[in-house]
């Protein structure tokens, strides 16, 4: 589980990040990353939130996908600059993907987002 300091919880933070952040798409999810200068709040830690809609499946499936994504993201937050705000929006393919595939795609998306923000 993610430490509370790394959790994105306010709906306003989700909204701003998805609307103004850098977007990186992968087959299982879409990652929105807000760079540190535009991040909401005074926190210097990277904060991450997950959106898993009904299109992914029933409640048991959605929660399982969210848990697997959270577990994979825990160790990958260091790929992004400190202070970023991240929203991971799961797509229906995430329900049938293995945890290893989710981890690989998340690593790839975070790396791509870091490169995009550096430009």
Task: Walk me through what this model shows.
The protein is of the alpha+beta class and 119 residues long. It has a single domain, classed as Ribosomal Protein S5, domain 2 (2-Layer Sandwich), CATH 3.30.230.10. The protein is 39% helix and 18% strand. The protein contains three helices and four strands. It has helices spanning 11-20, 59-74, 99-118; strands at residues 22-25, 29-34, 47-52, 85-90. A four-stranded mixed beta sheet has the order 1-2-4-3, with helices on both faces. A hairpin with a 3-residue loop joins strand 1 and strand 2. Helix 2 (59-74) crosses helix 3 (99-118). The protein is globular. The relative contact order is 0.24. The mean pLDDT is 90.
Brief summary of the model shown:
The chain is α+β, with helices and mostly antiparallel strands and 119 residues long.
Strand and helix layout:
Layout: H1 11-20, E1 22-25, E2 29-34, E3 47-52, H2 59-74, E4 85-90, H3 99-118
Helix pairs in contact: 2-3
Main beta sheet strand tally, sense and closure: 4 strands, mixed
Strand content: 15-25%
Rough shape? globular
Instruction: Look at the structure and give the mean pLDDT.
Output: 90
Order of helices and strands: HEEEHEH
Instruction: Write down the CATH topology.
Output: Ribosomal Protein S5, domain 2
Count of individual beta strands? 4
Structural class: alpha+beta
CATH architecture classification = 2-Layer Sandwich
Highest-level CATH class: Alpha Beta
Biggest sheet strand order reads: 1-2-4-3
**Terminal-residue CA separation:** 32 Å
Number of domains: 1
Fraction in helix:
25-40%
How large, in whole angstroms, is the Cα Rg?
13 Å
> Stretches where pLDDT falls below 50 for ≥5 residues?
none
Give me the number of helical elements.
Answer: 3
């Amino acid at each position: 589980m993610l430490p509370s300091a790394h959790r994105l919880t306010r709906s306003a933070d989700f909204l701003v990040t998805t609307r103004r952040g850098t977007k990186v798409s992968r087959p299982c999810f879409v990652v929105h990353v807000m760079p540190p200068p535009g991040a909401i709040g005074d926190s210097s830690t990277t904060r991450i939130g997950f959106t898993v809609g009904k299109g992914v499946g029933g409640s048991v499936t959605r929660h399982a996908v969210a848990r697997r994504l959270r577990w994979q993201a825990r160790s990958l937050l260091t790929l992004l600059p400190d202070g970023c705000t991240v929203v991971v929006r799961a797509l229906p393919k995430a329900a049938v993907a293995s945890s290893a595939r989710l981890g690989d795609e998340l690593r790839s998306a975070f790396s791509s987002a870091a490169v995009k923000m550096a430009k």
